[in-house]
Amino acid sequence: MNRVTQGAGSAAHFDPSVGTELVGARRRLIMRTGIAGAVAATLLLASCSSDSKGSTAAAATTPTTAAAAPAPTTEAPTSTEAPASESPEAERVASVRPTLDPLIAALAAGDKAASEAALEAYDAGWNGIEVYVNMRSLAMYLKLEADLQVGIEDGLAEDAPDFPALKAMAEELAARYDDAIKLSEAGNPPLHPLVDDVTTLRMIRADLRITTAALEAGDVAKAKEHYAKFMEGFESTAETMLGQRNLDNEVATEEAADAAAAAFEAGTASAEELSDLVAKVTSTYNFGVSLWNAAARNADSAKTEVTDNDLLHLGLIYDLRVQLTKSMKAWTAGDFEYAGSVAATAQTTVFNRVQPYLAAKGADVALKSAIDAYVELAGAAGDAKEVGDANTAAVRATLVAEQALLGQFWSDPAVQEYLAGLPAMDPLT
Description:
The protein has helices spanning 38-49, 88-96, 100-108, 112-136, 138-156, 163-186, 193-216, 220-245, 247-266, 271-297, 308-332, 336-359, 364-378, 384-406, 413-420. By secondary structure, it is an all-alpha fold. Helix 3 (100-108) runs antiparallel to helix 6, helix 5 (138-156) runs antiparallel to helix 6 (163-186) and helix 13 runs antiparallel to helix 14.
């Protein structure tokens, strides 16, 4: 396995039992594309990395997507990418379109259960490929998701759904989706190859989302079926990809995934117990997706090499993580005054050194928010889980910031040699 570590001293270590997400669960966020604004980047990150829950629709069978997942892009790209017609994009976007036909048919028949099942199947596929549409056209993305799909979801949630109106809405969704396919087929402008990698991870995650929804509905048999499909994609493709961005997270996700798989196989765990296990898998897996997403969103095809200035800024982010780790160790030891002081240093002096460079990529606001949340708790006694969760979120945020800064060159020897030369840091306890 070609694993790329975070750097000396396993600086990326975090507690895999912590369920706090960097940006929280997605509920049809109204997003902005690009990296021109910090708020826009924060929302995009949330959309692409934090889908911790699937649809709550009734039972459906969604084909696994893991077998179609290509090998990840790990080398620094050249300045020219293949057009969408020669890349996975157009094929992947088009592959989801057939799932809308059963939805239209079920709505036409006035069958609520079948409509919910068809919508769940569509949403699972859409969640995998939506990043393409989002990057191609914000207006189209918002129309497809925030307007039409959410409108159908809300309509089906009514005690007496207006099926003719919902059918018309689904037909419009299909027509607009056809327009999205045409955009992908045109492939203008070309998207960075790392976007394909993000989509690969999201497609594999589709069955994990359905697993979560099935467990919420108490359908353990359905959850077991889809979790097995997720594990196929995880073991064949996603596990290695997670390790290429952060080895500790790969290990944490593997351990959580194996624990959940064993519980499903044993057949003695309740839906609630299984939900807790799957939530741990989702948390670490989503964090891994957020690392790839940050790299893809901030990749610049015109940039072909790493500079000394890039490495300097990478070191500054590492220093942030050092201070956060020192603070948490002090807090755990009961030295709240020192813990607060070190956290405040990270919040101001250390962060301010790198903030302008992260702001240029729209990657400063999410990091600052996570650090601020931890600083509020670090200087006094409190609930250990709450403080630990906040610290973990801040540490994770530094790792996402690194990917925003240099993710497209993560496998470059210059980057890995620089990371290996940084001082070792004790892991969080």
